[in-house]
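Worked example 2:
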Amino acid sequence: MLPLRIFLCLTLPAIAMSTMALAATLHKRVAQDHWIGDPDASLSADNPYIQLAEKNVTAALNSTTADGSDTFWLTWGATARESARRGDATLRDRALAATDALAQNVQKKPAPHWAITTLLECLYLWNNDTTGNAATTDPMRWQRWLDAARPSVTLCYENHMKAFPSAATGKDSGPGASWSTVAPNTQFQGAVVLTLASRILGDARHEQLARRLAQKAMAQQLPGGAFPYIRNSGPSPLYLGFDATFLGRYYQLTRDDDARQALVRMAGIAREAQSNGMLDGSATPWWKHRWTPGGPMHGVEIVAGLSRNPLMRALAEKRLQLSQKLQYSHVAMYFWDPTIPSIPTTDLGANLYEWSGNAGGPMLRSGRWQVVLPFMPYGDTCAGGSLAPAASQSPQTTKPTFSFDNYVETVALPILRKEGDEPWTKNNTLFMIAPQETSSRSALIGDGWIASAVRFHPRRGSYGAPAARPPEGWLMTQIWFADQHGMAGWLTVTRQPKSTGNDMPRGLVRLGQPVVAGNDLRTLDSGPLSLTFFGSQVGQVVPDGKQAWAHLALPSPGETTGYGISITHTGRLLVVEALPAKTQNVSIIKLHERDAQPQSAAFVCFNAGEKTVTMSAPLDGWLSRPNPDAPHVTTIPAPVAAGEQITLQAGELVLFLRQPEGVR
């Protein structure tokens, strides 16, 4: 008789293979009869998206001025198999009249996206209505609708053809291409428009281009599962729903397995959702910061259905607490799956300390407090924080909160060209992170804390142009640390010979609530957050609505100016101090709690140069540094003695601690 260990070694692989084969067979059979997202599947009456649709139909009937979503819901109510009012003559007449009006508007103002998407979805419903197909019952009206759609479909086709220039150009779009040819949300929407148009108008070229377009957009997916807003930028929480909805609709129409796999990968985003069902808005391009639900909130249901990820399902359930009128929930309706293992929505926003493949930097969450240290192309900040609202203790309070108690959107050091400049004057102020410089960073992720350091030349703003404007005489260095109590950092710029004589560096912080003066001249309050500025070069600190300015000393060429800042939501403030550099190109900041003993200090050190250097350890304690064998994972702190010689690689960030568990 075989020993148990050998028996298991021989039989378990066979069992696994058998199980895999059974799963594959089951999947194949299910795919033949019914698949997740199948628009021909019979949906159960308890599907929450049917209930939402019926509510939206009622709202559309009661509306005196129908918009695009109203037109869609009237049409859905009159034609959809799932509608309880299908066949109602009054509703049908309202839907026909609304479609007429929409078609007229689309014909008057042809455009490649948005209104044409709604019109084609309505035509798709009318064409599949078994109670009275509009194409056969009213062929003249049907022809008017088709004629109205064609110019916009042609624009969509011509617009997205420019996304495919000759390979010899080395560019991702051709002459005259708009931004929409390099933004995944409009690429996916274009794929839906062209696929629907191919089915309705009968031109095979449309669906062929749709496939190429979807493939190009999917190739931009970030390691964390999200899609950039444009080119290789950070993602926008506003557009998460558009990406998921349009890609999900494309998959629903085509069964493209690459689309299915991309949607499954999007499930990783659920880890970054906070307890309020919202996502951080700091890592987005500078003109796309959004901290509201926006867009199709229910697109996450598509991802949940295909991935069967319980956390994504919890996020979708959380968002169902908000009744959204937008038409796009009709796609999510077919992906809702009650058999996904259920976890409570309170599991959203669990504590974490990890690398975000969507923000391009470390992130932490401790209770309601979250910090992200992003470094993404077209960004304007390397630190952002947010405080989710506390769970209501009152049973009478049933309305969900899709907002924040406060957030830190941007912490920056823009270079203004003249007094009174708006902070992000596109053609003047220097502030933007260029795509070619986002590798100049180092990060640490510890047990209860994160840290990051970056160096870049701030550029004039661009709306996603493939090549940023050249440097103009300033070099930025930032060092950041964050834990469960808050975040602290030091931002400096070095003036180089090519700078303009009138340049004015200014500290700038943008928040979610109005900023008011605090207990002293350098302390400000914004809702539950307290901000304190540090540094001998900081002059006046000025509240300005939901932002604050720090006036700084103007450096001579070759000199540096900057400021430190500490933000806390618990009142436990970290004092931050920049130390004189004893080693060339090594920047050091010292951190300690305001009321703590000086010997409890920690030191964050960044070799911003291009060569390996050696420095003396500033304390007896522990050293944390990046793990060369596992990117984005910090090594276990190692003992270190004061004065011990420590080698820093080019671009390396290290943290010296008194105790291995953190700064405080």
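Residues 580 and 588 are 8 Å apart (CA to CA). The domain at 38-167+174-347 is CATH 1.50.10.100 (Glycosyltransferase).
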